[in-house]
Amino acid sequence: MSASTPPTCPRCGPRGPPRERRPGTPERPPLIRTGCTSTSPARTGNAGANTASDHIIVLEQALAALPPAWQPDPDQPGDPDKPKVLVRCDTAGATHKFAEACRTAGVGFSFGYPVDVRVQDAVDTLNLGSCWYPAIDTRGGIRDGAWVAEATDLVNLESWPPGTRLILRKERPHPGAQLRFTDADGMRVTAFITDTPHGVVPGQVAGLELRHRQHARVEDRIRELKATGLRNLPCHSFWANAAWLEIVLAAADLVTWTRLIGFRNQPGLARAEINTFRYRVLHVAARITRGARQLRLRIDATWRWAAAIVTAWQHLRTAFG
Predict the structure, then answer these.
(1) For 93, which DSSP code?
(2) Mean pLDDT (the chain, rounded)
(3) CA–CA dist 182, 185 (Å, integer)
(4) Which domains does the chain have, with CATH numbers?
């Protein structure tokens, strides 16, 4: 999930009890912009990837975890002064029930869409009409070898909520990538649907595609969670593994907010992988001493990142009064 939120941990909000699941990999957690995990309910081991009821439960818990002042208002979805929340997911979440649930909750959606025969026909039509526009990168420049186009009028979307748009993207596969049957003329074609109207996101269609593509950052958070303790659940008991999951999520959230608050002026540490951050910061020998009514952090001055750690410690101390 993506949302504009204040510096308050969303996990402090209400959360429902975890659902039954056999010991195994937990469901992929939705994320807000801060990178903090808002909710991660467990599911049964045989649950399907596109089970709309499970996605709706995740949505409800994630929205409930947001501070009240930053929760969307379903009664006034078009009010520009109200918080805006966007739900992004891959094709597993592209179900009609989940889209209706997002509309009912007053949040926007951006779902991956399967490249079926209808989409392939739309790609052929767009190729004949030369209707593709250059894609953009995160800095706003033109992305080499990538193009985007809108195919809302070429595919029947009446079964989706009103205002749903279909955006297509084609790109040259990276060197070594294996082509798929859905790739046309050597181009990798992907699609997504969104209910964001025209003129909301800068860059028009290319801006919408860039926003949806940034959903891939969730893979970075999953990789960090696995490196923090979720690669293997250690217990045979479901409830013991559920407790382990909560501990790992809490640890990951502490690291996330430490980066955001303490290392905001140190991008090298704020964006470092968890293993690197653990080596440079968390595993460093230090001691907090008290004297003359002051707290002091004693750390080896020869350590390369000692100054950054001391500065971060001061930021953390003053962030909460």
Answers:
(1) G
(2) 82
(3) 10
(4) 2-219 (3.90.350), 263-319 (no CATH)
